[in-house]
Amino acid sequence: MLPFTVKVLEIIKEIPSGSVMTYGQIAAIAGSKRGARQVARILHSMSEKYSLPWHRVVNAQGKIVLHNQELANRQKELLENEGVFIQEDQRIDLNHYKYTGEMAFKKEKEDFPWE
DNA sequence: AGGGTGACGGGAA
DNA sequence: CTTCCCGCCACCC
């Protein structure tokens, strides 16, 4: 297995419940700034057998982008169950939920929509 | 071998 | 805000 793939899997495993990361962000941390599509492919092929929190990965616009509608619905449910608010336009506010690895909750000045 | 294809991203108009 | 467009690269025929 490629080193890049191993890193990607490790990074995804560290995303805490209630947060999300983007494909490109994960690729950059893993060492390939333009490897977003590879991250997506890795998730597509390995999310089951490596029991990853695959649902905590969205695109750079904060949207769920699975082509498979059934899986997309499952991802939305899983995220909402963790307290991630999905807006009417199906986007997630990355300013609130994007996991940076360090200051995960740097912006607590703004109120959460459901409170 | 070679062309098509994405669970993507970012810049331009 | 919306398209459109191109770079990207491992996989799958």
Would you spell out the secondary-structure blueprint of this structure?
Blueprint: H1 3-13, E1 21-22, H2 23-29, H3 36-46, E2 57-58, H4 69-81, H5 94-97
Parallel strand pairs: 1-2
This protein binds a DNA duplex (13 and 13 nucleotides) through residues 2, 22-24, 27, 32, 34-41, 43-45, 47, 54, 57-61, 64-68, 71-72, 75.
Pfam family, one: DNA_binding_1
Keywords: DNA damage
Protein name: MGMT family protein
Write up what this structure looks like.
With 115 residues, this protein is mainly alpha-helical. It has a single domain, classed as Winged helix-like DNA-binding domain superfamily/Winged helix DNA-binding domain (Arc Repressor Mutant, subunit A), CATH 1.10.10.10. 40% of the residues lie in helices and 3% in strands. The protein contains five helices and two strands, in the order αβααβαα. Helix 2 crosses helix 3. It is globular and about 40 Å long. The C terminus is likely disordered. It binds a DNA duplex (13 and 13 nucleotides) through helix 2, helix 3, strand 2 and helix 4.
Short description:
The protein has 115 residues and is mostly helical. The chain has five helices and two strands.
> Which fold name fills CATH's third level, the topology?
Arc Repressor Mutant, subunit A
Q: What is the highest CATH level, the class?
A: Mainly Alpha
* Rg, nearest Å: 14 Å
Count every beta strand, where a strand is a DSSP E run of 2 or more residues: 2
Number of domains: 1
The helix/strand class is mainly alpha
Beta strand %: under 5%
Tally of helical segments: 5
Strand order of the largest sheet: 1-2
Q: What's the order of the H and E elements?
A: HEHHEHH
CATH superfamily: Winged helix-like DNA-binding domain superfamily/Winged helix DNA-binding domain
| Uncertain residue ranges | 104-115
- Head-to-tail CA distance between termini: 44 Å
Helix content: 40-55%
CATH architecture: Orthogonal Bundle
Q: Average pLDDT, to the nearest integer?
A: 88
Shape: globular
The biggest beta sheet reads: 2 strands, parallel
